[in-house]
Amino acid sequence: MPESHFHPDTLVIHAGQRPEPVTGAVMPPIFTSSTYAQKSPGEHTGFEYSRSHNPTRYALERMVALLEGSTIAESDDPSRGGYAFASGLAAMDCVLELLNAGDEVVCMDDVYGGSNRQLRMVKARSQGLKEKFVDMTDLSKLESALTPRTRLVWIETPTNPMLKIVDLAAIAKLVHGRCAPAKFGPAPNGGIADGCLLVCDNTFASPINQRPLSLGFDVAMHSATKYLGGHSDVVGGLLATADLEIARRIRYHQNAVGAVMGAFDAYLVLRGIKTLALRMERHNQSALKIARWLETHPKVDSVIYPGLPSHPQHAIARKQMVGPGGEGGKGGTVGGRGGFGGMITFYLKGDLAASRRFLERVHLFTLAESLGGVESLIEHPAIMTHASVPAAQRDELGIADNLIRLSVGIEDADDLIADLEHGFAGV
Ligand code: P1T
User: Are residues 186 and 312 located together in one domain of the fold?
Assistant: First the structure.
């Protein structure tokens, strides 16, 4: 049976994997060698130098490419359209390196603070990129932001931290209707000379809940630090594409710029992915239960969770993350395993002092940046993850002093609820 027919639960174990040919090792060894012996100059086994080629990294890259729905053959690309980087932001950097100086980027208004910072504070200066932050839950705003010089549309959904949902299929239709698919300048290093690349940061959903490539996107990006790694013990980033020309350009820049993921980290992320489908099922179920509970809590002003009917884009989330007939871990779109994810944000009734008291009192939820691990985390976006977003932009988005973000782990949901209740008692 071709791999593309497998369900995600099978893919996370087997996609792009095979026993190591010399020993038959079932799990890919951690290849630490920085270089590989050549018989004669230029005559090698396909492995030359570990920034360019590493078998452990390839095993992870193939896995993520196939999980995201790439059909690129290994004979065309050894990592089948998947590319691993030192961090999520290094993966974003590689995408931005595909643009030419002065190009226009349209970015979702609500994105991870570090993604916002890379565009505004680094690439605007070093590459002269012109970025517009647009609320793409309103398609007409995206439509009026697109110009003939738009070379990249960058989306997150659910967004960080406001958990807005953008309709990926509708955006792909709109952008590819208005702009031609990206065309690159002469190989190997030509940037996007015409048309527009569509990229979705799929970190919050994971490929179990949402697959942007199947909805018309060109590239899916991940902070592997989150759900893919899943254990808060590794920092990494990934890109996946099903388009061979885009794949070739990413591969070129991954090697030429060089922020690759190391072999130890690739092994850890691959190990984490083996339980991704199981973990996401629990994240989806527990977050839905906790979001429903929070919505009835007298000390909570409002809850933002894509699985609640009160969420403004609930219907879109149901369509693109869950699919017909499913809910919170028993969904339909992605082989019957979709759900609304493990992230919840809510507004506490109170001010910054109340938020601080609440955040200091919880203890099963660790007060820390990041998300997507087996353990639950809690944080204050305005002071922590989104401090680098300008205050005016934070205000506009609603990143206020009483906004709290939860990453619901895989502990018992009732224990997590009891912990939150203990926190509320001090507010
Ligand atoms: O931290 P890094 O692996 O470089 O990934 C950056 C990144 C990219 N995209 C999204 C949606 C993210 O959430 C992140 C990192 N986010 C956090 C550290 C956080 O606590 O939100």
Answer: no
How confident is the model over 56-73, as a mean pLDDT? 97
pLDDT surpassing 60 at residue 334: no
| Cα of 223 from ligand 1 centre, angstroms | 6
For ligand 1, whether the C-beta of 370 sits within 6 Å is yes
Would you say 220 and 46 are in contact if contact means Cβ atoms under 8 Å apart? Answer: no
Instruction: Give the tens place of pLDDT for each residue, 148-185.
Output: 999 999 999 999 999 999 999 999 999 999 999 999 99
118 Cβ closer than 6 Å to some ligand 1 atom: no
Residue 385 Cβ inside 6 Å of ligand 1? The answer reads yes
Provide the whole-model pTM: 0.96
Query: Which of 273, 295, 325 is the last residue before a domain boundary?
Result: 273
pLDDT, average across residues 390-409: 97
Cβ 225 under 6 angstroms from ligand 1: yes
Q: How far is the CA of 133 from the centre of ligand 1 (A)?
A: 18
The secondary structure of 144-211, three-state, reads HHCCCCEEEEEEECCCCCCCCCCCHHHHHHHHHHHCCECEECCCCCCCEEECEEEEEECCCCHHHHCC
Q: Which tokens is 367 given?
A: 């007060």
Q: Is 265 in the pocket of ligand 1 (CB under 6 A)?
A: no
Q: Is 112 tagged catalytic?
A: yes
User: Closest residue (by CA) to atom 13 of ligand 1?
Assistant: 112
Are both 157 and 70 inside the same structural domain? Answer: yes
**80 counts as catalytic:** no
Domain boundary among 220, 246, 273: 273
3-state secondary structure of 350: coil
Selecting among 58, 83, 112, 252, the annotated active-site residue is: 112
One domain for residues 183 and 286:
no
Distance (Å, rounded) from C-alpha 313 to C-alpha 291?
Answer: 16
Residues 135 and 188 in one domain: yes
286 part of a folded domain: yes
